[in-house]
Amino acid sequence: xxxxxxxxxxxxxxxxxxxxxxxxxxxxxxxxxxxxxxxxxxxxxxxxxxxxxxxxxxxxxxxxxxxxxxxxxxxxxxxxxxxxxxxxxxxxxxxxxxxxxxxxxxxxxxxxxxxxxxxxxxxxxxxxxxxxxxxxxxxxxxxxxxxxxxxxxxxxxxxxxxxxxxxxxxxxxxxxxxxxxxxxxxxxxxxxxxxxxxxxxxxxxxxxxxxxxxxxxxxxxxxxxxxxxxxxxxxxxxxxxxxxxxxxxxxxxxxxxxxxxxxxxxxxxxxxxxxxxxxxxxxxxxxxxxxxxxxxxxxxxxxxxxxxxxxxxxxxxxxxxxxxxxxxxxxxxxxxxxxxxxxxxxxxxxxxxxxxxxxxxxxxxxxxxxxxxxxxxxxxxxxxxxxxxxxxxxxxxxxxxx
Length: 402
Hints:
Distance between the termini: 41 Å
CATH topology of the largest domain: Aminopeptidase
Order of helices and strands: HHEEEEEHEHEEEEEHEEEHEEHEHEEH
Largest sheet: 6 strands, mixed
Strand order of the largest sheet: 1-2-6-3-7-18
CATH class of the largest domain: Alpha Beta
Strand content: 15-25%
CATH architecture of the largest domain: 3-Layer(aba) Sandwich
Helix content: 25-40%
Number of helices: 9
Shape: elongated
Oligomer: single chain
Number of strands: 19
Structural class: alpha+beta
CATH superfamily of the largest domain: Zn peptidases
Radius of gyration: 24 Å
């Protein structure tokens, strides 16, 4: 791993390092902000961005603080998106350093959120501040959508912030989201889409009875095993040009029967399907119900699908994807793979407003004990974002509208 050379680090990269450590030092475990958005807001406001803090509420969910910032009033508008909330650190005693210290050791920055995704937020802010200082914003605009709700229920975060911005008349041409997209090394991968996610909950009702008298009972455990096997018996599809095959995974089977001599009266299971662009949640749910109907004639069962699901989407390769990939290759020497793998992200909301691609840091330690990033990677990511901004606005508004 290349060692960090602080003397040769660009001014933008040095600012990114300071911002990253400051962000990590705020224990912003969802839904708490703990001052993380204050750090981002001050850095952007000091550079001339107009900033807005927006708190969203909804009964049954925690209130969430969000930040919107923009500089420039004309098109094209490139928006950076991200989140400053983090998952809990777990047992802090198991960490090498305090998880909210932002400690520097072994040429790395340590702490919860370093990879996912305070490092990328810091890099995007520092790159944007650098661009404004060097180029100004005579034409075009840079915006930020930062939420504190991505690692949680995603109810009072990006989706509502986008709606709020749209109602104000804000329009975005392209978005760069800084989720940790690289599996092993910076430059490995850009995400140009995401699979959809559909969760189903299967309940099978039988008849409780004594195991010695099975004719007097109806065992739901046997039915649920047969039903789940039928749901997985045939592949859902074989994939598409940009997506892997859809897959159904059973994540729980729950009966809760402590007695070895009792046939249970009910069995439950939960499954999740990550699906490609051949399906919608509606068509996929219909296919699952069809398979269950064929296999479950003798059972009393129901399948309920969660109402909050993600739809598969793709940002078609073209000028913007090429621009980001070119910036990555110029800095790292690697031509990144264009991928749609992984879980869901807030890109699923942003894609309804503008084309979105994702490129951030290496994700090997995200959500783990001793989460950390290489300082050299943070510096390189900042430089990549600087390159993206320069190339994006060099093209001019007409090129992007065309």
